[in-house]
Amino acid sequence: MLCLTPLMIKVSRHFASPIKEELGEGQQAKKGIGHFGGVTFVFCFLVGIAFTPININTKIVIIAVLLFALIGFIDDCLKSRRKSSDGLKSVTKFVLQVIASLIIVYLLTRYNFIVAKWYYIAFYVAYITFFVNAINITDGLDGMASLISIILLSLLYLLNRNATSFIFIYCLMGFLYFNGGKAKIFMGDTGSHAIGAIIAVEAILSAHPLYLIFASLIPTFELFSSLIQIIAIRGFDKKVFLIAPYHHHLEKKGVEEQVIVVRFSLITLLLSTIAYFIIY
């Protein structure tokens, strides 16, 4: 990661997408920063996995990471090609996420990780899609999605002892070296989709998926803040937040970016610790 990311920083600057105008001065200062950092840590994850014993759990996680990383990569490429912050249409992206989730859930049922009942299938498809979008929405401030994901994956490693979580944590730590503080590169949808996928699938494999929702209160609230804002604007022509998701609302209120990142990460660490002790 530490060797490949500087190269990706230079390459991705030529494909940087514009920052949305409504995001204020702090975010506007980040114009020109590339957003293909996720490609680097997904690649490093695959390299790391190649040196570990591969069982069926590992195979399903790898497939999940690749499927969702591909969806995110298509979205990132469209943003770069159009020189716009808009990639795939929301409906198209959601349909692709559901299809990918169905493939993963099919594999989980085939190898008896979950019960092959329609309501279980529906729940886990929604569960995977939820986490992918929650991490995607959380990825908006330097280092925040990376830090929160490292904490959640650390909890999952303690529960599962799977090499996939362990390797992904180190890949994210390498990425965070260049993304924390003043970011030199963004993970993009390639990265956020891959992270959401591995967290969701590892949570299912841990047999404690509901506890992960509790530990992931920050990404959950971030996602719902965006949904609430959309409903309020389209249904009532009013705004609940100055801007959604919630971390940008706090920025508009004058809270410094790194203060938000530290506080949200500490909350996630606290909730993850509570979840761990409840399980054991």
Q: What oligomeric arrangement do these chains adopt?
A: single chain
C-alpha Rg (nearest Å): 18 Å
Average predicted confidence as pLDDT: 90
* Outline: globular
Task: Give the uncertain stretches in residue-range form.
Answer: none
Distance between the termini: 34 Å
What does the main sheet amount to?
none
Describe what is shown at a glance.
By secondary structure, the chain is mainly α. It has 13 helices and no strands.
Architecture overview:
This protein is mostly helical and 280 residues long. It has one domain (4-212). Helices cover 73% and strands 0% of the residues. It has helices at 4-12, 24-28, 37-49, 56-82, 90-110, 118-138, 144-160, 163-179, 188-205, 209-215, 217-236, 246-252, 257-279.
Features:
280 residues; 0% strand; mainly alpha; 13 helices
Question: Strands, helices and their partners?
Answer:
Elements (H helix, E strand, L loop, with lengths): L3 H9 L11 H5 L8 H13 L6 H27 L7 H21 L7 H21 L5 H17 L2 H17 L8 H18 L3 H7 L1 H20 L9 H7 L4 H23 L1
Helix pairs in contact: 3-4, 3-8, 3-9, 4-5, 4-9, 5-6, 6-9, 6-11, 7-8, 7-9, 7-13, 10-13
